[in-house]
């Protein structure tokens, strides 16, 4: 059980991007997200990437993805890293939050 909690904790994103339309153009604005949303996003990413895996059974797919998340590897962890990189790139749009 602790492995699952740690795996989800490693995948949880702390920020997300939302689109805001300002003056006719769309800007991606970083927002902090609450813990329930962080957890739901992490679980959604783990299940999505487990389904993309080529293993035979769903249990084996989930096991593989959870162990990769626990070890900070795999596609779910890469999704978190990519999201945080996008947040860093769009940091200049912080003043559009409201």
Can you describe what's shown?
- With 98 residues, this protein is an alpha+beta fold.
- The protein contains 4 helices and 2 strands; from the N terminus they run αββααα.
- It has helices at residues 2-11, 35-52, 58-70, 74-89; strands spanning 15-22, 25-32.
User: Radius of gyration from the CA trace?
Assistant: 16 Å
One letter per element, helices H and strands E, the order comes to HEEHHH
**Shape from CA axes?**
elongated
Question: Which residues sit in consecutive blocks of at least 5 with pLDDT less than 50?
Answer: none
H/I helix tally: 4
Helix content: 55-70%
> Strand order, biggest sheet?
1-2
Query: How many beta-strand runs?
Result: 2
Mind describing the biggest β-sheet? 2 strands, antiparallel
Topology, please?
Elements lengths: L1 H10 L3 E8 L2 E8 L2 H18 L5 H13 L3 H16 L9
Antiparallel strand pairs: 1-2
Describe the structure using short key phrases.
98 residues; 4 helices
Could you give a short description of this structure?
With 98 residues, this protein is of the alpha+beta class.
